[in-house]
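task queued by scheduler; priority normal; single chain, no ligands, no partner chains; default sampling; output format set to structure tokens
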Amino acid sequence: MSVGNNMRDNQFRTQEAYGVPENQSFNWQKWRKTMDEVEMRLREHPTLKKFQSRTGFPLIYSVGGIMILFLTLLYIFSGVGALVSIAGVIYPGYMSLKSLKNDNKLDNMLWLSYWIWYGLFTLIESITDILLFWVPMYEFIKMGFYIYLYAPNTKGALFLYRKLLQPLVIKFQQFERQFIKNVQEVKKNISDDSVEMSRGAINTSNTSRMNTTSNYPNYPNINASNNIIPPRSTY
């Protein structure tokens, strides 16, 4: 029992550290609380508050209806690609800019992990686009995948990073450290060999110079030639 409890505690702490909810099922009470908070924030704007007082309709439903109408018109005139761009680039980009101004480490990890997965997915898609193009509702599946990566109830980017990428990153870091160590050893050996070769070349040059000097012929002193009596002339 104690071993099982420890394993569950460790799993919960790991999930909590990465911000991954232990139970990813839909929580209606939490969703309702979030909607109430958004409603209160919308009412802080004088224009929206005045609109709500005249209509008596919750602002969150009004804003939601306008957004649905806008997205519908965007889909009709621009296609599903525009919706995918909003879900996969525009909204994550805006949230990433916001995360740069706060000190929430978990939020920064979420959006950094999201862009890693977005880049990998885009790379794979560019290679297999000719095959994925024929998948029914492919663009909507891709948009759902993007939303899954950053949705507050799933935080799939962190979950997938912990399950798939983190073990590979650890192995790659070990390989990188060993590779750098091997390169440094080879560099050191080459440097030592170069020094030894230079020393050997210098010693050989000095030895050759000494041998050349010792074998140089001894010519008679030119001054001594002054004492030589020239032969008499017969004439």
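post-processing summary
- The radius of gyration is 40 Å.
- The mean pLDDT is 77.
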